[in-house]
Write a structure and sequence with these properties.
Radius of gyration: 30 Å
Largest sheet: 8 strands, antiparallel
CATH class of the largest domain: Mainly Alpha
Structural class: alpha+beta
CATH topology of the largest domain: Glycosyltransferase
Number of helices: 16
Number of strands: 28
Strand order of the largest sheet: 17-18-19-20-27-24-23-22
CATH architecture of the largest domain: Alpha/alpha barrel
Distance between the termini: 66 Å
């Protein structure tokens, strides 16, 4: 077996070396964020040009990927993200072959982080399946004793390196799914390993139980640098995703600060650490992999305020400067102790991808430190989830005017150096009312912090956002308005369709999606979007019905709806939110003239669109608003009405092999006055066609309506949305209704946030 820290001695043919003097440094002691990023990219570029020959799911590769992902989170270049996507796709998003072995789980950290960007279920399918199997049938090995025969101990986290490989993967799967079982497994098994291997006197980890009684030539216990580097980096990678209100968080932070103090005392004058922490004189070689992990962890601790800045900052600046000096002009990171090499003697020119991973992780925190020390931070946003459920892709809206902030901003997660996708959003480009949008995931009852950085204050780059929403008025097709998120797509029809085809419809159409990619332009380009080409299709008939969330005025016991919209204005188009405004000509509602202006928006990660409608009428009396869903004749359709929650869903019967589409409208708690069923406004198909689907499925035969009262001239907000059984998100009617119920509950208990601006607001 190869031991990462070099305990197994495999001599290589190099002359014995004494302490190598520092090379002429191209990075000064307190480098700028730009110079740090440039160095990181140079190292990553070299690694991508010179790929490792280890198996693609091997722990060596996986550790390298963690560093490359840290670069993805701050670089303005797409190539690093594309490289990680290509790697994962080539691996078919699969873990290593050994079911329980921590090393074979490590690559899952990158899959989960990519999932948190794209939210494609396939990205974590194998990871989830593997970990579910472990939860269902945990390893039967009861002891962490490393001397067990046949390597049985390796089914448990019985060696300290495993704490980098496995628990950060488990906790990232929790962050991806909200399934608390993964979080609990990571935390409980971390402490099982800690109780066994952590020396409470030295505040360091033994590599494994075979080291309990072994000693260095100077009589000290043997604590390997890279082994403890794995642990400290693992602690950081746990704390990045451990809920801030988790009861074990103080314990993790306490172990981190204990180890940090000990590790600091072991730093050598050149800023690095030697292979043996307590006997550095007997291990003269400079070594960058263990040193990279320590630099990463200690810099993170300073950035978090867990470590005293005055004590630790000089140490981490010195460490980074020396690490950067170990990079050749072409970008090769040197002085990386190879696997199984004699830790006292190895080639100064040696490199390995895990060393590159450690270097890039260290660089990401050095980058953040440079930004913070350089005054880039202009605000902190504290976001809270008071609800008892996990929330994903919740949009935060920071009022820029109230916070006295400009618009040239980026948002950074406070627990990592990850720059989040963000969007400055506001009506018609006006400065007043502009908002900074970004999205968060929050555990039940959790508050997390986010840093707002001014791009003009030394932020050298911003990762290209992943655009997940889109809206377009389609000039080539009668000026339809079509909009979508990464989950669903819709369209509505302009009056040009009446002129062109004679079709009158103000209902809302659905384009079902089985991809997180945007499809609107592709659908219009290929025209035959009633057939599924692998990403979804239009299998939803609207006609004169309300479709999915269309509206009308209920008067005289009848529904009175507008015709197609007259004009449209696009107000925003991604990456997080897309929004548009429609104007409808006045129509007759039982002798009363009513006109409408409607704003519709959709956010990334959501199946639901927000509708804000404002009615005008010469008669100022309140109006009875009806919002509806089209019903079909097939009795297998499922209609669910929830007056208390203020929502309604309709799950259509499956259409041949095309699956089922679910629709929903949400008015909100306490806002539904009654429900109604009506068919008078829906032209009825011939009896022999009611149960015969055409290229768009079954025709509508009725509207299920939710009624509420609205004031003339006052904006009224509701939500409409849809889902598809073949998207992989909703298996059946119950799953769809559960989603809508949770959505309504989230709207009833919204996230909250406060903003601390720096410098303080002007009096």
């Amino acid at each position: 077996m190869h031991w990462r820290h070099g305990a197994v001695i495999a001599l290589i043919a190099v002359a014995p070396t004494l302490l190598t003097p520092l090379r002429a440094q191209s990075v000064h002691e307190n480098p700028t964020a730009g110079s740090i990023l440039a160095t990181m990219e140079r190292v990553a570029d070299w690694q991508l040009r010179n790929p490792s020959t280890h198996a693609p799911t091997d722990w060596t590769q996986a550790a390298g990927y963690t560093g490359l992902m840290a670069l993805v989170d701050i670089s303005g270049s797409d190539k690093y993200r594309e490289a990680m996507l290509a790697m994962a796709s080539s691996n078919k998003w699969q873990l290593g072959p050994r079911a329980y072995h921590a090393d074979d789980h490590c690559v899952g950290q990158t899959y989960a982080e990519l999932y948190l960007t794209y939210r494609e279920p396939r990205m974590i399918a194998d990871l989830r399946g593997r970990f579910d199997a472990i939860l269902e049938k945990p390893s039967s090995v009861g002891s962490l004793d490393f001397g067990q025969r046949n390597g049985l101990a390796l089914e448990r986290w019985s060696w300290c390196d495993a704490l980098f490989m496995a628990p950060p993967t488990w906790i990232r799967l929790y962050a991806s799914t909200g399934d608390k079982r993964y979080l609990d497994f990571a935390v409980s098994n971390w402490w099982t390993t800690s109780d066994y291997l952590y020396d409470k006197d030295e505040h360091l980890y033994f590599r494994d139980s075979s080291y309990f009684s072994r000693r260095e030539p100077n009589g000290q216990k043997i604590f390997w640098s890279r082994g403890n580097g794995w642990v400290m980096a693992g602690l950081v990678r746990m704390l990045e995703f451990l809920p801030t209100n988790n009861p074990d968080r103080p314990r993790f932070e306490r172990q981190f600060t204990e180890m940090a103090a000990k590790v600091l005392s072991c730093q050598q004058p050149d800023g690095l650490w030697r292979a043996s922490l307590l006997d550095p004189e007997d291990y003269p070689m400079q070594e960058t992999s263990g040193s990279g992990f320590y630099t990463y962890a200690l810099t993170w601790g300073v950035n978090q305020g867990l470590l005293d800045r005055e004590v630790y900052s000089p140490a981490v600046h010195r460490a980074w400067a020396t690490l950067a000096s170990m990079v050749d002009p072409d970008g090769k990171l040197t002085h990386v102790q190879p696997i199984g090499a004699d830790p006292k003697k190895f080639s100064e020119n040696a490199t390995e991808i895990y060393g590159v991973g450690a270097f890039l992780l260290a660089g990401s925190e050095a980058y953040r430190m440079a930004l913070l020390e350089g005054g880039s931070k202009v605000a902190e946003v504290h976001v809270s989830n008071k609800a008892p459920f996990f929330r994903t892709q919740e949009t935060v809206e920071v009022d820029l005017e109230n916070a006295h902030l400009g618009t040239s901003l980026v948002v950074m997660d406070a627990l990592s150096a990850r720059i989040l996708d963000s969007q400055v959003y506001g009506s018609e480009g006006a400065a007043a009312g502009r908002k900074l949008l970004f999205q968060v995931d929050l555990s039940p009852g959790e508050t997390r912090d986010y840093l707002v950085l001014d791009k003009s204050r030394g932020v050298p780059a911003e990762p290209k956002p992943v655009t997940k929403t889109y809206v377009r008025q389609v000039a080539e097709r009668y000026n339809d308005i079509a909009w979508e998120s990464d989950r669903i797509a819709h369209r509505m029809y302009s009056q040009d369709l009446i002129k062109g085809e004679g079709t009158i419809s103000s209902g809302v159409d659905i384009w079902a999606k089985s991809t997180r990619a945007l499809v609107v332009d592709g659908f219009y380009a290929r025209k035959n979007y009633h057939e599924d080409a692998g990403v979804g299709l239009d299998d939803y008939q609207v006609g004169r019905s309300r479709g999915c969330g269309g509206l009308g005025i209920w008067a005289g016991g009848q529904l009175h709806s507008p015709i197609n919209f007259r004009s449209a204005r696009i107000l925003a188009s991604g990456p997080i939110r897309s929004e548009f405004e429609l104007t409808f000509d006045a129509w007759d509602a039982a002798g009363r003239q009513v006109s409408e202006v409607r704003r519709v928006s959709i956010d990334a990660g959501s199946n639901m669109s927000r509708v804000v409608t404002t009615f005008s009428s010469p008669d100022p009396k309140p109006l009875d608003l009806a919002v509806g869903l089209a019903e079909r004749a097939d009795p297998r359709g499922v209609l669910v009405k929830k007056s208390t929650g203020g929502w309604m869903t309709y799950w259509q019967a499956p259409d041949r092999d095309r699956g089922s589409i679910g629709c929903a409208v949400v008015l909100g708690q306490g806002r539904v006055t009654s429900f109604a069923e009506e068919s008078a406004s829906v032209p009825q198909p011939p009896a022999d066609k009611r149960m015969t689907p055409n290229i768009e499925g079954l025709p509508p035969v009725a509207n299920a309506l939710m009624l509420t009262q609205v004031q003339v001239g006052a904006p009224f907000t509701y939500y409409l949305g849809a889902g598809w059984s073949k998207s992989g998100d909703f298996a059946d009617a119950n799953a769809w209704s559960d989603y809508v119920e949770r959505f309504a509950a989230a709207k009833a208990a919204p996230i909250t946030h406060t903003v601390d601006a720096f410098p303080p607001k002007a009096p």
